[in-house]
Amino acid sequence: MKYELVAGFETHVELSTKTKIFCSCTTAFGGDPNTHCCPVCIGLPGTLPKQNEKVVEYAIMAGLATNCEIAEIAKMDRKNYCYPDLPKAYQISQYDKPLCEHGYIELSNGRRIRILRIHIEEDAGKLIHNHGDTYVDYNRGGVPLIEIVTEPDFRSIDEAKEYVERLQQIMRCIGVSDCRMQEGSMRCDVNISVRPEGSDKLGTRTEIKNMNSITNIAKAMEYEYERQCDLIESGGAVVQETLRYDDATGTTSSMRSKEDAHDYRYFREPDLVTIAVPRERVKEIEARLPELPEQKLRRYIEEYDIPEKDAALLTRYRSISEYFDKASEGLKAPKTASNFIIGQIFRRLETEADKEAFEVKTSAEQLGEMCRLLESGKLKNNLAKKTLEQMLDTGKSVTDFISESDMAGLDDATLTEYCQNAINAMSAAVNDYKSGKEKALMAILGNVMKQSRGRADAAAVTKKLKELIG
Amino acid sequence: MGQIKRIHEMLVSGEITCTELTQKYLNEIENSNKELNAYITVTPEVALAQAKAVDEKLARGEEIGMLEGIPMTLKDNISTKGIPTTCASKILTGYKPIYDATVYELLLKEGVVMLGKTNMDEFAMGSSCETSYYGGAKNPHNTDHVAGGSSGGVASAVGANLAVYGLGSDTGGSIRQPAAFCGIVGLKPTYGAVSRYGLIAYASSFDQIGPITHDVEDAAIVFDAIAKYDDRDSTSQGSEPTLPTLYDDIKGKKIGIANQYLKDVREDVKAAVLDAAKVYESMGAEIVYFDLPELDFALPCYYILAMAEASSNLGRYDGIRYGYKAEHYNGTHDMICRTRSEGFGKEVQRRILMGTYVLSAGYYDAYYKKAVNLRGAIVEAFDRAFEKVDVILAPTAPVTAFKNGYLFGEETDQLEQYLSDICTVPVNTAGLPGVSIPCGADSEGLPIGMQLIGKKFDEKTILNLAYQYEQAEHKTIETKWGVKL
Amino acid sequence: MVTREDIENIALLSKLFVDEKDLDSLTEEMQKIVSFADTINNVEVTTGEFDNINNLSNAFRADEVRPSLPSEEILKNAPEQAEDHFLVRKRA
């Protein structure tokens, strides 16, 4: 029998606010252990949380960017469970009144992945296990997260991969998170079940926790899909459980232990007050929202005539699309800038992280200047590629490489010198011209072009010669 | 004149230096604390250093504030930087906070002298102070009786003149009931009037810090100093000052008496409260009897919600970051369970279990959710009552101070202890202010207290009415203990 | 009805050990308190949903970094610590 994959995602995204969600400690990554902490985020008795306004704003931005409805009234709840990385023995989260609900992200195949909810919550600290001893560092404790929960709308692993990439693009574009999976600022839990093709009943699902790369997500889903299919084929049944994916063996295994009783006893966080979101506030945030990757992509393809593949690369990271937007400003054909970015600049960036950071020596303005010269014909096509390579190597401007040797058009002094040389050398032609033979000027121009080895601009030479001859 | 004003004048006139005054209190604590067990920690170095600063200021001829140099105490659930803060629990053994509670910060700015940290029921869970890991505080009127709870240590200390005043906390009556038992004044402010930052939580949506004082004027002075908005506590709002209207006439004020408040109250207590009503009538106030049937379910509603919040608030005591840690264990989970089982007393464990129960799957709707909704009904019932009256007069407790061990004996029904909070919890459930003042004594000479309950953030009216009664009746009974000035 | 299993379950959730020998008496005691709590279910509630006691909303803090405490302060009260971490040794 053939089985259909059914999956849903719960994605934790760390927000890039300056401070933690309930205290004023920095959210900076790294730092020596327990140096980004205060009485509040280590849960000292008597301390109280104070909500970071930016966290609410960022969550609303994330909701708007994923077509969610924004709640008018939201609240915070306590999710109670005892674990050494959770200093209060409860996580402040949102239970029945999340900030955002009922959104979707559209995939390239036209299918919409429905987003059930987006809520805000605090991250836990970090545990290091060493020979049975446990070391605890609370630097990450209290860093703000949004959790984005989808409906079980995924039918293939490719859809899952595309969803995660889209989500990253969107969050980076609106600037609420850097979504670096390798640093843990984006983590995915996937619910998976299988069912006979054609069936509309959901099978028993398992949940694979805390995956931190798209490759692992794909591999884990693949493994789990096969495992469940085999289980059912051999007459067994899938047990609802929480799994962890082991990268080394490429398998999933149960995370259950008898010490974890799971009953979170959610109740309203009495130390915080209601979050009210007036509609004007939503409108104001919406108005400030930058152009989303999807909109950008359409604009690049439809207005700029950029091939879809290139447009997708340009919109993958906010830093790249910003670079492109700046470089292509005022160009007749923005595609020119795109071609250079994709064809030459990208080749120099090896890793995903390099591409995301997009730190290149040539500024967007410098690339723009070069493209403009190319458009005006002042820089010849065959020289552009080599010139850009030099620019990228040195960080110098286009004029540093072509004003002396390659630019179509010489500086005035040189031009004057060449013209004077020609006039002196070709007195006959000059006289012919003076007596009305317009054509004679062409011969003098030819001499100037020869001196400049073809670099001089004919119109500029003509004008200069007329000036000098009088 | 109130105690604080009197001492203030003595300091200003030079009749006594602040250091002499402080030393007197420290000596008396030394003499009496063994018997009264009011203090858990005494802080002579801190107190004398603070006193010295006040004396230096006076010597320079500078003016001092009303609370400056006045020796006081804090309940041991109010965080004090570098000074042990135990909540009277074994689980906080050795814990020294690394920050000050907002109320202590405010008082430090006033230049107070902090004598030490006072006894309480463990994590403020109890009505007798006897759940304290350090043993209960005794009643200065008769040491065979308890000081009450949970702020029994503050009440015992203030009642015995081992401090001029103290700050307690009131979750279900923990300021008012011990104040009543010890024959002094206790003000539970409106929820949100005083910052909770630094108060070790029992039940966050009920807890309030408030003054326990010798007289009403003192309560007003201290309240006005601590009822300030604090941006570290999202539920904090501050309140209006009470001193400007404290001495006003009360003619025409409407005082309500809810019949339900008198139902399960001992006859002599009831009689004392009704006598007080007559005094008010004679002063030109109007007495209105009315029904408040919602009071009948205030107690179970309160216990469900308070225990639920407590079960969550007390989850953090796991032996990792502070306090007691079990010595023998096998692995993290085992360590946490052992630490908590060894570190928490019986009553605290009982309330954690009960709170976990009412929040757990399958029971949440019937208990927690239902109680939340009932809380709304109680709030509305009081709102309706206050459309007709300015304040509500009620007994503070149905009885006078319990005998030592009476409610904490092995055979004693736990429920009985819970039921003794019947008069105080409605105020916390509705977030209202309430002040308890002495209004008589029983046949054994133990004080009887009555409370005046006000509208939210209307501490000024209840204190005004309390003050006028106090001035007319002088029901305070002096004890043999402590500093005599 | 409060059962022994209920008590075992909530004890696990509460991270408290209950001695086997105390289980019956504790079950009985909890039953009494639960029966008392149950009295609220004799009352009809007609009021709207209760929000928070003073109906407050939007108590926010600006996203501005303030200095954290040095790790020595943070770790000051730790029963055990090593290498700037809180530490739980395995023991046994």
Describe the structure.
The complex is a heterotrimer of chains A (470), B (485) and C (92). With 470 residues, chain A is of the alpha+beta class. Chain A has helices at residues 53-65, 157-174, 214-233, 279-288, 293-302, 308-314, 318-327, 335-345, 352-357, 364-375, 381-394, 398-402, 412-425, 427-434, 440-451, 458-469; strands spanning 3-14, 51-52, 69-70, 73-74, 77-80, 90-93, 100-106, 112-122, 126-130, 133-137, 144-150, 186-196, 206-211, 242-246, 251-254, 267-268, 275-276. Chain A folds into three domains: 3-281, no CATH class; 291-402, no CATH class; 412-469, Orthogonal Bundle (Arc Repressor Mutant, subunit A), CATH 1.10.10. Chain A has a nine-stranded mixed β-sheet. Chain A has a three-stranded antiparallel β-sheet with strand order 6-5-16, with no helix packed on it. In chain A, strand 14 (242-246) and strand 15 (251-254) form a beta hairpin. In chain A, helix 2 (157-174) runs antiparallel to helix 3 (214-233). The mean pLDDT of chain A is 90. Chain B is built from 15 helices and 13 strands. Chain B is an alpha/beta fold and 485 residues long. Chain B has helices at 3-13, 18-36, 44-59, 102-110, 152-159, 176-181, 216-226, 267-282, 298-313, 332-343, 346-359, 365-388, 414-419, 425-430, 459-473; strands at residues 39-42, 71-75, 113-118, 138-139, 142-146, 165-170, 185-188, 208-213, 254-258, 286-290, 391-395, 434-441, 447-454. In chain B, helix 9 packs across helix 11 (346-359) and helix 9 (298-313) crosses helix 12 (365-388). An eleven-stranded mixed β-sheet of chain B has the order 1-3-2-6-8-7-12-13-11-9-10, sandwiched between helices. A two-stranded antiparallel ribbon of chain B has the order 4-5. The two termini of chain B are 13 Å apart. Chain B has one domain: Amidase signature (AS) enzymes (Alpha-Beta Complex), CATH 3.90.1300.10. The model of chain C has no long low-confidence stretch (mean pLDDT 92). By secondary structure, chain C is of the alpha+beta class. Chain C has a domain at 4-42. In chain C, strand 2 and strand 3 (85-88) form a beta hairpin. In chain C, helix 1 crosses helix 2. Chain C contains three helices and three strands; from the N terminus they run H-H-E-H-E-E. Chains in contact: A-B, A-C, B-C. At the A-B interface, strand 16 of A face helix 9 and helix 10 of B.
